[in-house]
Write a structure and sequence with these properties.
With about 55 residues, the protein is an all-alpha fold. About 70% of the residues lie in helices and about 0% in strands. The longest helix is centred in the N-terminal third of the chain and has 27 residues. The protein is rod-shaped. The chain starts with a helix and ends in a 10-residue tail after the last helix. It holds the Pfam family FixQ. Keywords: Membrane, Transmembrane, Transmembrane helix. This is Cbb3-type cytochrome c oxidase subunit 3. InterPro entries: Cbb3-typ_cyt_oxidase_comp.
């Protein structure tokens, strides 16, 4: 294998791998079945109004 072939393969396979990873992340982030867990995580960092800690 020459250097040019290895560079071509790494650029092609790397791009395909990163795009696949991106699609998996987007699908998981916008999945309606995960909305309840994401809402709970978003509210968990907020204080309750009755705590009295400022």
């Amino acid at each position: 294998m020459t250097h040019d072939i290895l560079v071509y393969l790494s650029k092609t396979v790397g791009l395909i791998w990163l795009m696949g990873f991106f699609l998996i992340v987007v699908i998981r982030a916008y999945s309606p079945s995960r909305r309840k867990a994401y809402d709970a995580a978003a509210r968990s960092v907020l204080q309750d109004e009755g705590d009295g800690d400022a």
